[in-house]
Amino acid sequence: MLENTKTPRDAGKSALLIIAVILVAAAMKIASAVTLPLFISVFLFLLFNPFLNRLEKMKIPRWLGVMIAMLLLLIILLFAGWFFFFTIDRLVQRLPMYIRRFTVIDAWLAELLDLETGSSFLAYINFDWQGLILSSLSSVSEKAISVVSMASLIYIFVLFLLLERQSLIPKLKIAAPQGKGMRIAVLFERVNRQISKYLLLKSLISIATGVLFYLACLATGLDFAIMWGVLAFILNFIPSIGSIIITVMTITMALLQFFPNWANIIYVAVLMISIQTVLGNILDPRIQGVQLNLSPFVILVSLSLWGFIWGVAGMFLAVPITSVLQIVCANVNSLKPVAVMIGSGKSYRKVVEEERRRARERAKRRAAREKRRNGRHEAKEPTKISD
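RESULT FIELD:
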């Protein structure tokens, strides 16, 4: 009877939890003008927190450490704005040359596919590439104002978070229910430590990727070397998809710039793919280690989900948010199955292998005891016959 009443109750709780998650995701998407800057500010706070702790250990006053951190953030935002407008200006200046080269490639494709004389391959498939380029540039310029306003809001959020960083843990302890304050404080410290370490290591790997892309562009003579280096640094924060995007973009740029010189195009492709292979598949997993115990499939799902909610910015935040959710679920008894399902499973595979090893040892000991027992029984049989 108890089991029959318990099962519907658990099913009701699960249904309410799913509905709550859907409603929260919908609210985040609708209120993205506020929720997105807030989440970005929180992760910037986690990134700056170890830096401020290090400054405090060096006997630097807290207010001075906050000023240094905010100055660094201001420099980063100003550089991002300069890079944005500089890149757009250079692209607009060279756009006629790239359009002519694109026309040559279009005619080559039409000839390769044996289309009618004077026809265009892109016109044949009804693709208005000139309109697409112009609309993309105009939409980028229109979004510049919204990006500036969001950056200003993020800057203000980070400032107030850093000013309250010393009182955050005590407030959590007091606000939490009795007996759970210390547990919540430890959970917060664990989230802070893991996400900060991930962001720091990911930043170092992304810097290395950006520098290598910049040097590769200089070595091959590819246009906009600084732009490709910065984009490689930025897109490296998007797992898997980011490296594919920047590699395809540089190869496409090489095709536009060097066509029909296939040697240079292949040279660029080999260099960019090699950089991503070495850093993304060899060095990145070794340096990161088991920092984030997340399933690759779950990472792809989270990229799609947060990309749908917040666009490209959501894809940058997908992995840290999923990692935070896993840590929280692992420390809540009713949500531990969720933490197990979104994990990579490496630690659980070790547990299963250890249980199998112990089961084999127990089976061997039982077989040895049976063998000894059978041996003693056979030794007693002749004695009974002689009597």
